[in-house]
Design goal:
Strand content: 15-25%
Radius of gyration: 18 Å
CATH topology: Rossmann fold
Distance between the termini: 38 Å
CATH superfamily: Vaccinia Virus protein VP39
Mean pLDDT: 95
Shape: globular
Helix content: 40-55%
Largest sheet: 7 strands, mixed
Strand order of the largest sheet: 3-2-1-4-5-7-6
Order of helices and strands: HHEHEHEEHEHHEHHHE
Number of helices: 10
CATH class: Alpha Beta
Structural class: alpha/beta
Number of domains: 1
Length: about 260
């Protein structure tokens, strides 16, 4: 990518709304939902689309991962991530690497767990991505991820197209059933799919209310009046497509067979 989509202004905006180091909804609470019932202590973890480092901090500090590698295609988020991890003294267990779009440059069976939070939305070919994740996992390894998804594979509505145009990001949304099929075709078993639209319908309304109320001043201090107004209008569009059900965040899990 020639220019970063997630530059400093966006990182600062999202830090006010979702918390430092997070570029997607829910912060630490949604990470906990993704990892509910799982034990990743002592594991080697790859975080695909790591963003600004908030997730790495949680995986290493709170969930006991032995080693976390966060990868992203964009330099600005990785700079923020490295600073955050350095402040918490976790450089011996967390590292970051910038990668190019496409198959990842790591050997087969390199990781115990692959984690990703709301980053695969930028990857058009979900099927190839699932195959590459299967390749990178050790036998018995786990893929656990969330993503921003659409209700189905039909053409986006005018409302959705208007939202994506206003967002200005390279969104390539797939549906939850498509992810399930892609995982099964790649070889994953014990596949779990969870629709999170109901949760985010409530959360996105609360985010918009906060942006119009108590978060307005912190946002204006961080990124200015004009950028705050632009993002508040963007959130209103986001709220509409989430409430219509067309945009549906979802969770996926899959196990690579032990043999």
């Amino acid at each position: 990518m020639d220019e970063a989509e997630y530059g400093d202004t966006m990182i600062q905006t999202l830090a006010v709304i979702w918390g430092e180091g997070f570029l997607s909804p829910g912060g630490a609470g949604e990470v906990a939902e993704l990892l509910r019932g799982l034990d990743i202590s002592g594991k080697r973890v790859l975080d695909v689309g790591c963003g600004a480092g908030g997730i790495e901090l949680l995986l290493a500090r709170d969930y006991g991962a032995a080693e976390v590698l966060g990868i992203d295609v964009e330099a600005p988020v990785l700079e923020h991530a490295r600073r955050l991890i350095a402040r918490h003294g976790l450089q011996n267990r967390v590292r970051f690497e910038q990668v190019s779009p496409g198959p990842l440059p790591f050997p087969d069976a390199s990781f115990d767990v692959i984690f990703s939070k709301d980053a695969v939305i930028h990857i058009p070919d979900k099927e190839s991505w699932c195959q590459d994740m299967f390749r990178l996992l050790r036998p018995g390894g786990l893929l656990v991820a969330s993503d921003w998804m659409r209700v189905d594979e039909s053409e986006p509505s005018a409302e959705m197209l208007a939202y994506m145009e206003a967002e200005g990001l390279s969104f390539r949304m797939g549906s939850l059933p498509r992810y399930g099929s892609a995982m099964a075709d790649a070889g994953f078993v014990q596949i779990g799919l969870r629709d999170r639209n109901e949760w985010y319908r409530s959360a996105v309304r609360a985010e918009l209310e906060q942006m119009r109320g108590p978060l307005r001043a912190p946002l204006e201090a961080a990124v200015g009046v004009e950028e705050t107004a632009r993002n508040t209008a963007l959130w209103a569009r986001l709220c509409a497509v989430v409430e219509s059900g067309e945009l549906r965040p979802g969770h996926i899990r899959g196990l690579k067979p032990a043999c």
